[in-house]
Amino acid sequence: MLQTRVIPPAEGAYQYPLLIKRLLMSGSRYEKTREIVYRDQLRYSYPTLIERVARLANVLTAAGVKAGDTVAVMDWDSHRYLECMFAIPMIGAVIHTINVRLSPEQILYTMNHAEDRFVLVNSEFVGLYQAIAGHLTTVEQTLLLTDLPEKTADLPNLMGEYEQLLAAASPEYAFEDFDENSVATTFYTTGTTGNPKGVYFTHRQLVLHTMGVSTIMGSIDSVRLLGTSDVYMPITPMFHVHAWGLPYVATMLGLKQVYPGRYDPEYLVELWRKEKVSFSHCVPTILQMLLNAKAAQGTDFGGWKIVIGGSALTRALYEAAKAKGIQLTAAYGMSETGPLVSCAHLNDELMAGTEDERTTYRIKAGVPGPLVEAAIVDADGNFLPADGESQGELVLRAPWLTEGYFKEPQKGSELWAGGWLHTGDVATLDSMGVIDIRDRIKDVIKTGGEWISSLDLEDLISRHAAVREVAVVGIADPQWGERPFALLVLREGYVLGAKELKEHLKPFVEQGHLSKWAIPSQIALVTEIPKTSVGKLDKKRIRVDITEWQANNSTFLSTL
Ligand code: AMP
Description:
By secondary structure, the chain is an alpha/beta fold.
C-alpha cells in the first residue's frame, strides 16, 4: 500500500455522504416555477415536489416503514413514481421498481426474493396483485395509487389511497444522514435462463451515476443533449433501470418533467406537442412505434433529442428519425451498470468527416463516460488490443455498477470474474476509445467456422425499403452448425422474398462488409416480432417460435 498523506478531518468538519436527498434539493434552486407534469391530470412546481416527498416520507414512516425495509412500486410512469424514487430511499428504505410487464409468476418470484414489505399498487394492477397476493411471503401492507374517482380497492391490508394519505400528512420531514453505501434501489433483470436476478444500487452509486450522466449529456459538445431549459419525458419505463436514471438527473437540474403514464404512441406524440418536450430516451422498437403512430405522420419533430440505448441503433432508424427532425444519439448500458456506460461522441477528427462517416459514429455505442473504464478480453480473460479489429467480451469498471446479484453470491462473482464486470457483449474498441457492440455473446451466429453478428445483419437488412422491422437469430443446421434466420415485418404495400433479400445483401458481401455465409437462407414474414418486457427483440422467444414453425414449415413464406 502506498504511504499517501491522509489528514484526519478537523473536529466538527462535516463528513458529506453522497445521498439521494442532495439531488432533490438542488433542482428548485434553478427555476422554482418549473413544472412536473402528469398526463393531463396534474402539474406542480419543484417546491411542491419537495413537499410531497416529505409528505410521502411521513406516510411511510407512520405505516411502519423502517430503514433497510424494501418498498415496492407497481406503476406506470408518473409523478408519484418520481416521488417514490426519492422518498423511499431518503428514509433509508429500498425501492423495488417492479417490472409490471413480467409474467405474474416472475413478478411473484421477484417480490418474494426482494423481501418486499410494503407495496404501492396502481389501480390498473389490482387484479394482477390479487392473483399473486396469496403467495406473497413478506408483504405486510399495500397502498393504492389511482387516477380514478374511486379511492379504494380490494387490496389486502390496504393502508389507504396515496393522495388522501399525502393530504393528511405533514409537509415537513427531517431526513437524516446515513451511510452513502446503503442500498437505495433494486430491480430484476431477466436473462436467457433461470430466475430473474436482483441488481441493486447504493445512494453513492446513484449520485455518482447522476453526476456522470449529466456530465456526458450536458457537457460533451458533439452530443450536447441536456440543459436546464430542456423539457424531459421518459419513454423508457421507470421500472427499467430507473428510467435510465434520468429522473434523478432532471430533478437535480430542475428541468420541466413530463410523465406519460402507460405508453400509448398516439398519446406520447400529443404530450410531446403540448408540453414542448425536447429530451427523451428509449429503446429502438419504441421509437419505431412512435414513428409509426398516426399522430406522427406529417409531423415535424424538430428539436426533439432522443437517446437510444438498450439495443443497437440501426442506420435505417437513425435516418428515418432524422428525416422527421429527431436528433438521435446512441448510448450503451445494461441493468447491471446503472445503466449509462457510454454515449456516441464525435471528436474533432470525426466531425471533419463526411455526413456518412459521422452517422457511422453517431449510431455506435460510443465513448465510455468519465470515470468509466472499458476493456475487451478473450475467453481466458486476457486483455485484447483496442485496435478496432480484435473482438472480445466487453468488461467494465465504474463507481456505479451493481456489486453483485441480491442473495446470489455465485452469480455475482461470475459477473465480476477477475475484478471486471462482464457484460456478455462482444465488442471492439478502437484507438479513439469508441466501443462498437458487435453482438451479445449468446446471439452471435456461428456458421461454418465463421462468427456472424446478428446486429450487423439486422442493420443491413433494415436498409431495404420494404423492411419495417427485422430480427436475426442463428438456428441449428446439421451441416454448418448454425445458419442465420431473419424474421421480417414489411412496410404496408411491399413484398419481399428471400431472393430479393439476397440481392439486397449481395453488394455488402462484395464490398467486404458481410461474409457470404451471413445471407439468411430462410426468412419468415410476420406481422409482429416478439418483444421482451422492455420492448427489445425477444430472441429467446423467437428461437422457440422458429423451432415450432420448422416443425410445421407451411408457415415459412420464403426459402432459398
Ligand atoms: P438490459 O440489461 O436488459 O438493459 O440489456 C442490456 C443489453 O442491451 C446489453 O448487454 C447489450 O446487449 C444491449 N445494448 C444496450 N445498449 C446497446 C447499444 N447501444 N448497442 C447494442 N446493444 C446494446
